[in-house]
Write a structure and sequence with these properties.
The complex is a heterodimer of chains A (277) and B (361).
Chain A lengths: L19 H13 L2 H27 L6 H6 L2 H4 L3 H22 L1 H8 L3 H36 L10 H28 L2 H20 L3 H10 L1 H8 L6 E2 L2 E2 L3 H25 L3
Helix pairs in contact in A: 1-7, 2-5, 2-7, 5-6, 5-7, 5-8, 5-9, 7-8, 8-9, 8-12, 11-12
Chain B lengths: L1 E10 L2 E11 L4 E5 L6 H8 L7 E6 L10 H4 E4 L11 H11 L4 H11 L14 H13 L5 E5 L7 H16 L3 E6 L2 H7 L2 E6 L2 E7 H8 L2 E6 L3 H9 L4 E4 L5 E4 L3 H11 L5 E6 L2 H9 L11 H7 L15 H4 L3 H29 L1
Parallel strand pairs in B: 3-7, 3-8, 5-6, 6-7
Antiparallel strand pairs in B: 1-2, 1-4, 8-9, 10-12, 10-13, 11-12
Helix pairs in contact in B: 3-4, 4-5, 7-14, 12-14
Classes of the chains: A mainly alpha (277), B alpha/beta (361).
Amino acid sequence: MSATTSAPLRLDAPARRITFAEAMDSEFAKIRSVRSTYWTLLICLLVSVGISLLIAAVTAANWDTISQSDRASTGMSTVVAGVYFGVLVTGVLGVMVVSTEYGTGMMRTSLTAFPRRAMLFLAKASVLTIVVLLLGVVIAFASYAVASPFYTRHGVDLSLSETANLRALLAVPVYLTLVALMGLGLGFLLRHTAGAISSLVSLFFVLPIITNYLPGTTGKDINKIVPSNAGSAMMATHATTTDGNPELSPVGGLVALLIWTAVLLVPAFWSFRHRDA
Amino acid sequence: MIQATALTKRYGPRLAVDHADFTVAPGKVTGFLGPNGAGKSTTMRMILGLDRPTSGSVTINGIPYHRLAAPLREVGSLLDAKAVHGGRTAYNHLLVLAKANGLPRARVDAVIDLVGLHSVAKKRSGGFSLGMGQRLGIAAALLGDPGIVMFDEPVNGLDPEGILWIRNLMKALAAEGRTVFVSSHLMSEMALTADHLVVIGLGKILADEPMADFIAKNSVSYVRVRSPQLSDLAPKLASRGWRVERQLDESLHVYDAQPAQIGDAAGSEGLWLHELTLVQSSLEEAFMRLTAGSVEYHAGQSGDADGLRAPDGAAMPGWGTPVPQEIQDSQPSRSSQSAQPSQSSESSQSSDSSQFKERIQ
């Protein structure tokens, strides 16, 4: 404790130039060392798999009363239906990775340690992507494991050797990750947990309600590309229509969601590089 | 070495930092002094690349902060002790920073021992007291064994033991040849630790000089004289070219003269003296005088605030211009104004002279 003994102060190793590797190291250490990460991941897993299981059990129990068209539209997207709620949790994780740093002032400390902002931004986004992708794969296959038996019992083809089924299942981690990145973008733009989460919820739950009421084919076209509908298009296994208007194809859904992500991440990147911390 | 050149930061219509030029050299403690809102923190944030200057530049050993190869190896800073994620343990907080600069894990243990946080290293920092938070911040600043350390108001809110610890630490760091840059709004604190002084007021650098020069230049001294024959004495002293002010408490303040000269003068006129005291104004007053025009928020009508501005000569007659007539001038309103600052300077006198001694040792 004595300030005059400077022995532990000495660091003889030569200074290395900081690179992307150090930023990744530091960001991994950050995300690992707060409890909220584990809570968020656990909640996301439980919500996604739990709701998928619940829907499967209820659907199977009432199979006889379900209309022919509903039976026909049952597929992989029904198996992983809990993901529609899980995305919100990964979105919140994306927000919090940034907003808690601004909220606590940690961002200034982080930036003094690693002032190369573009690299820090990319490292943050990369670490989030890796964590959520892994979680997404776990969620996808866990949901498949617990929910698919309820449907296959009634003759629904969910075989993973079917390309469309496998693709739909693999869309789950991609969807979760893109929404997490949208949350990250909102966190950087708004720097405020409550504001960014409200915006995210509005984007996923309020916006579709509004666009759903838009009249005419233009209204339908707009409704298709809102984030939640683009996400569900990614997980569709057969072409679906709403009131005779075809929904986006899986690739179309992916493109729409990528555009949404870019619309938030690009300004976020610019803002992070240029605004005072 | 920190070097600012025409460093300027504008927030809307307000110039927070206005063409600041200064250099912070190694091997000594440089105090960065200014009233609240003077631009100290903004300047420090610009040094660290957190805020972008509107114009001008500031460099660390010739390089802008964001281009340093490994920033923590060159600059250790503590701007805000609360700028940590409260959910992370002290150890992990330091580990995150160490990893960002490729520092070995052993450094984390080393700085934790150095600041004495060993027993709480695995506790989440959200529950830390202010003093513990400050120690954690200093541990982070020392993580990379930096040649430059920078602390913003490090003793604010600390208990006496913590204050003493930080003072000694800063002196020890400077003695090791490091550049130590520390901000404060308290002159008395600076007088105890700083070797060099950069004074800022309303964003402008008002002084950049060795502490000793600052003291010599800015400390005002006068001789307090009491006499039963004050009315006779005052014009006699004034006629010798000394500036004389008559105070409400029936004493004279005589400037530009030594006590012995005044005593001799009184003796040669055959006048009695009851008191002859050399009064040295405090450094705090010198600082206030320097920044008097640049305090962002004045404290209403209180006597103290008037005392701060008095030396300009605006609020207090007779301070700037030694006109003998004013000795006779005994308008109650004016003399009551002049009485207050003199009392305050007397009361602060004793404590300040002891601080000087401590500094010199």
